[in-house]
Specification:
alpha+beta, 2 domains, two-stranded antiparallel sheet, 25% helix
């Protein structure tokens, strides 16, 4: 067994037993544009979506070509670009009482890059941590956060004496506990391994929100300085390691006034249109530099409801980027989101158009050949992703810690 597993077993005074289970990465590379295993709650198709933009004219799409003409192109509004990612690893199984649970480790990286002018693109901030996700039965005295903090300190003191770990300055930054109660009979949806990975995912999402909060605290976001967040903004306090507090949750949401979430992967049937028709057909038939109307999307959580403005945008066009070069009709479409702080207050249509035109501009130059989903990439987001991924510790090093 590796050194961390040795410590876990030896410090338990015989209460726990670790097995020499094969260690393996858990992340799968999925380059498909359509998300088949999405977590969104698809709106019933018989309902009609409500417009979330001020222009309520009954049309399916909006062309942005006029805004993209050289003499009318608005100045760029996006200055910051945020990406969060994580790698997870099954490192062992542990016997607690009469049950066996997986031990899952994770690397989390959340980074934000800043663009100053045409030629300066640099780091604004970067959070990198290694976490350990264990069953909550591991905390047999129900010490909660104090137990997790104290255990990490003791673990790091012990393994920090080893040359392999000391030379690299590696520490376990946080111990996470996943719940072991409830039904775990469904191997695909509700098993212990997925719960362990979910805790690591929650930690990454929390770090994303805290970084946006720091940007606001530093007065970095304003009308001329917006942020693109890679992925959805549909945060749910039910899936957070911060603990649910209504005031804290509302404060975090208030930070997103000048943030746009852009997803390369999405569920095309998340929403119906204003007539109750399938929006997926409208999305697939978007012309170059065209967007759908903006619709209101509601998510439920234990504190109530959260509302978002959602629209879909085709990024590319022209002869060299015609349909003949698309793998599917969704290949160069992105899902765009903004937080609606007030349910009944739509976003100005002119603002939506300016944002959309800016997103189209951010798609150039392209990263063709560097990523199979190049057509869905915004180039500065691609640079931010590459920057964040360059800070991952080699997976073999992580596995050798155990």
């Amino acid at each position: 067994m590796g050194k961390i597993l040795d410590y876990i077993q030896q410090s338990s005074n015989g209460k726990f037993q670790c097995y020499k289970t094969k260690k393996l990465p858990l992340d799968a590379n999925d380059n498909d544009t359509i998300a088949y295993n999405y977590d969104d709650n698809t709106v019933v198709q018989t309902t009609k979506s409500i417009f979330a933009e001020t222009d309520r004219s009954r049309r399916s799409t909006v062309s942005l070509k006029n805004l993209l003409k050289e003499n009318t192109t608005p100045p760029p509004i996006f200055r910051y670009f945020l990406d969060g990612s994580r790698h997870t690893y099954k490192v062992d199984d542990i016997a607690i009482g009469k049950k066996i649970f997986p031990i899952v480790a994770g690397q989390i990286i959340v980074g934000c890059c800043e663009r100053k002018g045409r030629d300066i693109f640099k780091k604004y901030d970067l959070y990198s941590k290694i976490v350990l996700s264990m069953p909550d039965d591991f905390d047999d005295d129900d010490g909660g956060e104090n137990f997790c903090r104290s255990y990490c300190e003791s673990l790091n003191t012990e393994i920090g004496r080893l040359p392999f770990i000391k030379e690299r300055g590696i520490t376990i930054d946080k111990l996470l506990l996943y719940k072991t109660d409830g039904n775990t009979g469904d191997k695909d949806k509700d098993n212990y391994k997925n719960r362990a990975v979910a805790q690591i995912q929650n930690e990454m999402v929390d770090e994303e929100q805290l970084l946006v909060a720091q940007l606001c605290k530093d007065n970095r976001l304003n009308d001329e300085s917006w942020l693109i967040k890679d992925g959805s903004l549909e945060y749910n306090p039910s899936f957070s390691n911060l603990g649910f507090d209504v005031v804290q949750w509302n404060n975090l949401r208030a930070n997103y006034q000048r943030v746009v979430g852009v997803s390369k992967t999405f569920d095309p049937e998340l929403l119906p249109d204003y007539e109750g028709n399938r929006l997926s057909q409208t999305i697939a038939n978007l012309k170059p530099f065209e967007r759908t109307k903006v619709y209101r999307y509601e998510t439920q959580h234990k504190g109530g409801s959260a509302f978002y403005a959602v629209w879909y945008l085709r990024l590319r066009g022209g002869k060299e980027e015609s349909r003949n070069f698309r793998e599917t009709n969704f290949s160069d479409v992105v899902k765009c989101e903004m937080v609606l702080l007030q349910e009944d207050k739509p976003i100005e249509t002119d603002m939506i158009n300016v944002i959309s035109a800016n997103l189209i501009r951010e798609a150039y130059p392209v990263c063709f050949g560097s990523d199979i989903r190049w057509a869905n990439h915004l180039y500065p987001v691609f640079l931010t992703e590459s920057f964040c991924k360059s800070h991952y510790i080699n997976s073999n090093v992580i596995l050798n810690l155990f």
